[in-house]
Design brief:
Two copies of one chain form a homodimer. Chain A has a seven-stranded parallel β-sheet with strand order 1-4-5-6-7-8-9, sandwiched between helices. Chain A has a two-stranded antiparallel sheet with strand order 2-3. Chain A is built from 15 helices and nine strands. In chain A, helix 13 links the parallel strand 7 and strand 8. Chain A is globular, with a radius of gyration of 19 Å. Chain A has one domain: TIM Barrel (Alpha-Beta Barrel). Chains A and B meet through helix 9 and helix 14 of A and helix 9 and helix 14 of B.
């Protein structure tokens, strides 16, 4: 039983006494307590792959910042790795895949069943044990399109011109790969739920590099397959940069739509309608402001979104150089806010 | 007198017999003839700063590809350099500024008058001489917001969290710097026109990282100042990623709005109205497609935009690994297209 079930209630569209709040990337990045653990290790992946330590950094923001949910410390790229493409995380540069998918023949080297991701499920079990019902635990995965981007490009990119090019050069192959990723992701998320995840979030970090038609065909379609297959827990879909597709995202078989900072709460609600819960969307750069300005920005956001069917968050993952005191102020401002209705 | 004035006529909103076509980044990047010159030099900047060579690579796409305009080979970062922040272009990484603007005191180190950019004006003069009226020459500059991004961040960035943070931390300082950049840019563009530029384009490469309100205050406002000051030649404004602001860009005191590939021609025309000329917007990744698919995509684009008040282009600079034959096919498809009206 959860002692604080605000996030679950909001995600299910039930009445809440106050707005729940958490931050994307809260586990890892900003806390000195996180950095101390991270620096004692060989690298980012050792932390991801060690359940005991992953659980520890997952819980830090609950203890230190007072967020209403924990999100399991992991990486969206564990899926392509488990499918057959190992990656390294290069300090200050980001992920790098030695092998990528260049042809239909390469697809045969991949597996989409019996993925070895037990270290993630063990981290979830350990986290749930240590949380002891204080707050819900969020599990997550990358959306198929974003995972395809890395499997084709092999690293981050300013343009992701290789995966985008594939959609013109060989759309059939793109669909085959998206099918495999989707199948893997469904199995992965179902196991996360079995291990104890109370809510799931799908991150489509590179949604915004496609146009609306492409995103419907190569993005939303596969996200919806995942949503349709999982009805055990509420799902949040965060399609970063794809506000041009909000009118289509509203029909997804999910409970919550995550929003980036390019759309205001009123506009998002108008487009998405009253049915779904909305999550977001303070510009993470607002956390660099002096206190008064930060409080004003958070207050404006809250009044735009309203008190119900809403989960306060940033519009992007918190940036690494953010002062944790500003994050606390963000969280406290949400918790103390009085809505005038 | 121009022998081919299609681009100028389209930019002025006059009737044209066919749609003019050129490509962003056509000068440099894709042609083997360009690479041969580039490889004989110490670096990118030597090419930018040598008028004779800059003129040569500016004209290559006119001779080889058959575009309806030349665009002067240069870089938007010559402005921050002339204002006092020298940069280097690091191979495969992009621009790097050793000094950046961190405080109001740093602003005093900058100059916004008597900028030494004669090498650009000399390149324009030399190009005009060699073009001998075959096609118009496009001059350009970065928009103040995009230039500020580099002056604050000091390099490319996934998030540009420093300049975005400044808008929250010290908006007054942001406005001061934007004023200085705007003043420099007006003088710079006026000199380009005196040297022979027939059309001007303002590139706001990082428009899309702001929200709509911020872009109005820190972006559009300064672009409009530039547009209001220059009435010698038609101006095109390309605010990449800022389709959320099309309804405001339509009121700019410029002739043409450049579009990225995230908006279709019909929607853009509906929002912007009938007054302005539109330019764009094929996804550069469509140039990776087989010929039939490429022809189909170009044809769809042309039919959406229509035959008048339209300049065919890509929705982003052509990517370096693009086959020049595909670029020729793009250009030829535009030239041969029959509109059914």
């Amino acid at each position: 039983m959860l002692k604080n079930d605000l996030l679950i209630r909001a995600a299910k569209g039930e009445q809440t006494d106050r707005v729940p709040v958490w931050l994307m990337r809260q586990a890892g990045r900003i806390l000195p307590e996180y950095r101390a653990i991270r620096e004692s290790l060989s690298g980012f992946k050792e932390l991801v792959e060690t359940p005991d330590l992953a659980a520890e950094v997952t819980i830090q923001p609950v203890d230190i910042l007072g967020v209403d949910a924990a999100i399991i410390f992991s990486d969206i790229l564990v899926i392509p790795e488990a499918m057959g493409l190992p990656y390294t995380m290069v300090e200050k540069k980001g992920p790098y895949f030695e092998q990528t998918i260049n042809s239909e023949a390469d697809l045969k080297k991949l597996t989409s069943t019996n993925l070895n991701l037990n270290y993630v499920f063990d981290a979830i079990k350990e986290t749930k044990k240590r949380l002891d019902g204080r707050v819900p635990l969020i599990g997550f995965a990358g959306a198929p399109w974003t995972i395809l981007c890395y499997m084709i490009e092999g690293s981050g990119s300013k343009t992701f011109s290789k995966p985008r090019g594939l959609l013109y050069k060989n759309p059939k192959m793109a669909h085959q790969l998206l099918e495999m990723i989707t199948e893997s992701t469904i199995a992965y998320l179902k196991e996360q739920v079995k291990a104890g995840a109370d809510v799931l979030q799908i991150f489509d970090s590179w949604a915004g590099i496609l146009d609306k038609k492409q995103y419907a065909e190569f993005g939303i379609r596969y996200i919806n397959r995942i949503c349709e297959e999982i009805d055990e827990v509420p799902i949040t879909v965060f399609s970063k940069g794809a506000n041009f597709s909000l009118g289509e995202l509203k029909d997804l078989d999910c409970r919550t739509i995550g929003l980036d900072w390019h759309v205001d709460g009123k506009t998002a609600r108008e487009i998405i309608g009253d049915e779904k819960t909305l999550q977001g969307n303070l510009d993470p750069c607002a956390l660099y402001a002096v206190d008064d300005v930060l409080i004003q920005k958070v207050t404006e956001m809250l009044d735009e979104f309203g008190s119900q069917k809403y989960i306060a968050n940033l519009g992007h993952g918190v940036y690494p150089d953010t002062d944790p005191e500003k994050v606390k102020l963000f969280i406290d401002t949400v918790k103390k806010h009085k809505f005038h209705q």
